Amino acid sequence: MKYFVQVLFLIIIDGISFLVETKAGVVLQNDFAKLVRCDESFIKFTSFKFYKKSRTFAALNVTYTTFQDITSDEHVRLKVSAWQLRGNEFKKTVVDFSMGICTLYKANKFGALSLIKDSNLTGCPFPKDVYYINDMAPTSDVLPPFFPEGKWMLQLNFFNNGKVITEVQWMMTILKQL
Ligand SMILES: *[C@@H]1O[C@H](CO)[C@@H](O)[C@H](O)[C@H]1NC(C)=O
Ligand SMILES: *[C@@H]1O[C@H](CO)[C@@H](O)[C@H](O)[C@H]1NC(C)=O
């Protein structure tokens, strides 16, 4: 009932467009993104801005400089771990995997290309340079089926030679539509 009221409220606020963006009755609401750490000998963020575009849509804009060419999966890997809020604590779940950044890009895994459509990334390879990515906002399309509703934290760790070069925490809420 609580979610029904919440979803109904969102639909009233944002009209039909909000419904069209969702898949399989699941809504992904992006709550917050935080840059936890980064290795400035490899990559430096000059801007990291999570902002609310509208009542129901929030996104991340970043600009960063890389100091090494990224040419293969061995160079940079992304490890994703999903933590779910239970009680008032985030608990690690079984959703935990890792993938080379070039495969992520080339095979368009998890809608990677739609996440970076407003960017000047044209890799892989990604030569060392300045890059921007605007309006990054995952939708429910990136989720595996039957992803449970609730508050979630995605821990995104980018690794180079087993060392974390960037860690981002992405907070989101999964809502089920009735
Ligand atoms: C990406 O855009 C930034 C800022 O406009 C620019 O400085 C940089 O050279 C561009 N990088 C590439 C690879 O085109
Ligand atoms: C983020 O990028 C979008 C698209 O370029 C722009 O419209 C928006 O104003 C930017 N937001 C912030 C907070 O920089």
Automatic annotation (TrEMBL):
It comes from the Eukaryota. Residues 1-24 form the signal peptide. Keywords: Signal. This is Uncharacterized protein.
